[in-house]
Amino acid sequence: MKWKNYYQPHSIYFFTSRITEKIHILRTDEFKQIVADSLQKYLDKYAVNLYGYVIMDNHIHILISAPTAEGVKRCVQQTLRDSSCNLTRKLESFLDTPFASQAQSILQIFAKHSNGKARYAVWKEQARGIPICTPTVFHTKLDYIHNNPVRAQLVSEPSAYRFSSYLSIYQGEPGILPIESPIL
């Protein structure tokens, strides 16, 4: 059965989206920044509040809400679409470099999974959104997000991972993306 997201205005949602075939395309900061830039563009466009995030090597997690259900839906859809286009464009830029065979291999996998109008399927299916109903669940998801890089053995502590909301939330330092304080 296919996953179906249901959206409510002003509700907080935990979203996860994974790269097709779990390819670690987001391993470099440059590729992670592409996703962050796309997310920032649509957070602004749809007045979406971001409460927590992590951009991992092959997936992302975000906690968001918006004044309208449509804003949440469009922000996520367009972030994935925009980042997909920009990631594949970046991969295509490697086709005349020593990394051509790696880039071509990844593009072929993305092309194999595409359907509809898209030439490539960078993100696996649609992002799954889980409504957050209590402060306890919110903090559980936020801890999960922040500890993801530690579990993946990318860093020894959450504060060492740059593409996460940890430093913004717990140490007041500016992060890659602006964070809102939730009213729970």
TrEMBL record:
This is Transposase IS200-like domain-containing protein. PANTHER family: REP-ASSOCIATED TYROSINE TRANSPOSASE. It comes from Candidatus Thiomargarita nelsonii. InterPro entries: RAYT_transposase (IPR052715), Transposase_17 (IPR002686), Transposase_17_sf (IPR036515). One of its GO terms (biological process) is DNA transposition. One of its GO terms (molecular function) is sequence-specific DNA binding. It comes from the Bacteria. Pfam families: Y1_Tnp. Residues 8-148 form the Transposase IS200-like domain. The lineage of its organism: Bacteria, Pseudomonadati, Pseudomonadota, Gammaproteobacteria, Thiotrichales.
